[in-house]
Specification:
The structure is a single chain. The protein has 93 residues and is mainly β. It has a domain of 65 residues: Sandwich (Immunoglobulin-like), CATH 2.60.40.10. It contains no helices and seven strands. Strand 5 and strand 6 form a beta hairpin. It is elongated and about 50 Å long. It holds the Pfam family Ig_3. This is SMP protein. It comes from Geococcyx californianus (Greater roadrunner).
């Protein structure tokens, strides 16, 4: 039930399209952005999995991924120092 915010950022010329994916599903996209956050307001066990941020423009594509683990109440806590994970930057395009 906790909230988690995932974030990534990238720079490029031309500015990249930033996208968040879970598996093959696009969760959020923002053209011409240098940062893109993904808010997961009330985590449930089924939201655990691989999340990937992709930055792409006409010169190339870079991505970073993370594995999100969700601990149920009464279970052992997830091995994170805080309820949020923010990372970046991606390599310049």
């Amino acid at each position: 039930g906790s909230a988690v915010e995932l974030g990534c950022w990238a720079e490029g010329r031309p500015p990249p399209l930033l996208s968040w994916f879970r598996g093959a599903a696009v969760l959020r996209e923002e053209p011409l952005a240098t940062a893109l956050r993904l808010l997961l307001p009330r985590l449930q066990p089924q939201e655990a999995g691989n999340y990937r941020c992709v930055a792409e423009n006409r010169h190339g594509r870079h991505n970073q991924s993370l594995q999100l683990h969700v601990a149920c109440e009464g279970g052992s806590p997830a091995p994170l120092g805080s309820p949020s994970a923010l990372w970046g930057p991606l390599e310049p395009l």
